Automatic annotation (TrEMBL):
Keywords: Membrane, Transmembrane, Transmembrane helix. It holds the Pfam family AA_permease. This is Amino acid permease. It comes from the Bacteria. The keyword Membrane applies. The lineage of its organism: Bacteria, Pseudomonadati, Pseudomonadota, Gammaproteobacteria, Pseudomonadales. Its main location: membrane. One of its GO terms (biological process) is transmembrane transport. It comes from Pseudomonas guariconensis.
Length: 453
């Protein structure tokens, strides 16, 4: 007898589709981090560190590797979407999990916006006849459609964009080598600087700015429920993304400093253009603009995919309204409402300035990094006592605590404005949590992570 289809009322709910493998995850992380993102803050960090941007990237890479390892531990134990929100929820309970997720939203909501703003600025310079606001609106519309259609479109677009940026990097390295040929070169200057900003404090200040370049490994963890073998591939992708991007950033900063020594520029915000003109003339400058805009579009694509899944996870858990946030499109299997909401929020790119946006991103990232490092200790050494041996203490005690210490150290270098805005956002989340729990008189709903076992 043929199997009868289930009635519509009993149809299985839409679920995120497990279609991603290790290469797609690594490319997703790389495009999220944007290989050319180094040139966004290159001039600023070079001035802060006195020509030691490459050294600052090494400091940041060291700090991020410890935290990335903590993320890999947590996603291997709990292969679920939601990133820091899910991990702190499972380790410390729903109240702390909510506050971690809320802080993470400050970071994720503004990353697509800053990319739209950069796209509008750069293309408006290249094509002055086209108003920046029309470019921003067109970019938001394109990214929204691609994300609604599904993660396949995001992965395919990510591969193309990373590929284009890799080609540019190859051309940049080749032309830089050609421009340096036959000239005296101080190979240590990118690490030692020009002496204008001596001391470790200035190096740390630059490293604190650069930590935002490494947010891609965190974004990879949000795709755990769309990965075929999440426990194996997502931890590997997190480490590979962090290490690969960090070394690439360091190399590009090192070469840029060799091409254009010193730490003073006609315009620090446009220092990348000075480097490109010195290395390859107008051709390389134009190529850079095209590649940078493509990277910003790819970062917007990946970051919107990540934040929409965090909102979906919080809605599914009834932390946010489930009927709107916690639903997937039956046709596309994507959180359409969350995607459209992020796009609507990104319209602020039409009125906000770049400096303000940059200051709003740091706080949430560092809160999330700190929370995940602590979640590793709580999960593996306190809640689960099977790891209380020498190896377990080293992996789940020393590694996350070092990561926490380095993250807090970077925190001390944030600007006062960033701390004030971040604390106000955190206070708003605390107030919302008080409403959800009737003034903390009743426990928040416990989350059922079906994939967490």
């Amino acid at each position: 007898m043929a199997k009868q289809p289930r009635p519509a009322a009993e149809a299985a709910p839409a679920q995120l589709r497990r279609v991603l493998g290790l290469p797609a995850l690594v490319f997703f992380g790389l495009v999220y981090m944007v290989p050319l993102t180094i040139f966004t803050t290159y001039g600023i960090v070079t001035e802060i560190t006195g020509g030691r941007t490459a050294g600052a990237y090494l400091v940041t890479l060291l700090a991020m590797l410890f935290t990335a390892t903590s993320y890999s531990f947590m996603v291997k134990r709990f292969p679920v979407a939601g990133s820091a929100y899910s991990y702190t929820n499972l380790a410390f309970g729903p109240n702390v999990g909510f506050l971690a997720g809320w802080s993470l939203l400050l970071d994720y909501l503004f990353i697509p916006m800053i990319n739209y703003l950069l796209i509008g600025l750069f293309l408006n310079i290249a094509f002055p006849a086209i108003p920046a606001w029309t470019i921003v609106l067109a970019s938001i519309a394109l990214v929204t459609v691609l994300n609604v259609v599904g993660i396949h479109s995001v992965a395919k677009a990510s591969n193309l964009i990373v590929g284009a940026q890799i080609v540019f990097i190859g051309v940049f390295v080749a032309l830089s080598y050609q421009s340096l040929a036959g000239q005296p070169v101080d190979l240590l200057s990118p690490l030692l600087g020009d002496g204008s900003q001596p001391g470790f404090g200035h190096l740390m200040a630059g490293a604190a700015v650069l930590c935002l370049s490494f947010l891609g490994f965190d974004a990879v963890s949000t795709l755990a429920e769309e990965t075929r073998d999440a426990r194996r591939d997502v931890p590997r992708a997190i480490i590979l993304t962090t290490l690969g991007a960090g070394l690439l950033f360091t190399l590009l900063a090192y070469i840029s400093q060799l091409v254009l020594p010193g730490s003073t520029f006609a315009n620090a915000d446009a220092a990348a253009n000075e480097v490109m003109f010195k290395a390859g003339g107008q051709f390389l400058a134009n190529f850079f603009t095209a590649a940078f805009v493509a990277g910003s579009l790819g970062s917007a694509l990946a970051s919107q995919a990540a934040v929409s899944r965090i909102l979906y996870t919080m809605g599914r858990d009834k932390v946010l309204p489930q009927r709107t946030f916690g639903q997937l499109s039956p046709r596309f299997g994507t959180p359409v409402f969350a995607i459209v909401l992020v796009s609507a929020f990104s319209l602020l790119a039409l009125v906000i300035d770049l400096a303000t946006l940059a200051s709003l991103i740091s706080f949430g990232a560092l809160v999330a990094f700190s929370a995940v490092n602590l979640a590793v200790v709580r999960t593996h050494l306190i809640n689960e006592r099977t790891h209380r041996n020498l190896k377990g203490l080293a992996c789940y005690g020393v590694v996350p605590l070092v990561g926490l210490g380095l993250t807090l150290w970077l925190w001390t270098s944030l600007s006062a404005l960033t701390l004030v805005i971040g604390l106000c956002w955190f206070a708003l989340g605390l107030a919302y949590l008080a409403v959800l729990t009737s003034g903390f008189r009743r426990p928040m709903r416990l989350v059922d992570f079906s994939e967490a076992a």
